[in-house]
Amino acid sequence: TGWNKKASYLKSDGSYHHLYDEYLAQAFGKKLIPSTQGGLNYAYSGGVIVGAHNTRTAEQPHLALEKQINEYLHAPVKKEALHILWAGGNDLATVLATAVTKTTPEEKQAYVLASINTMAQTMAQQWGALQQAGVNQIIAPTIPNVTYTPEFFDKLGEAAGAQIQAKSYGLIKQSDFV
Hints:
Strand content: under 5%
Organism: Pasteurella multocida
InterPro entries: GDSL, SGNH_hydro_sf
Number of helices: 5
Low-confidence stretches: none
Protein name: Esterase
Number of strands: 2
Number of domains: 1
Radius of gyration: 20 Å
Order of helices and strands: HHEHHEH
GO molecular function, one term: hydrolase activity, acting on ester bonds
Largest sheet: 2 strands, parallel
């Protein structure tokens, strides 16, 4: 239903940037094909480690890493293939955007730390599921750049707008405008 299933972000001309896994596949003479088209790339645009970190998970369950891995494990697992478990950017964007809505610095810090702990535990469980299936070659890169996530831009803009409004309330009068 119009869901952008390719994990990527758009260039200014509307085409998709390649992600490093696509460059890696090209270096091996392969092409990554989305699982929705019969391929082995199970990544989804907007994907998250923790399903609750994307409000669209109910609409598109494959956004949750656990669902992506379960789907992969239902197909014949290519145990000797190189597997890439790259996730967390969308989670972190949501965590940071939610943290700024907390009242005190202590609440913000506690929320971020608890969320990161949940992300790490969930990622470890999914790593374990792959290992149990016999997968022995897994690359786990660092968290993707959160500043490229659309939800980060949206939530950061909302938070910034709310802060500007709160800080400027009462300072600007209608008579200030001509």
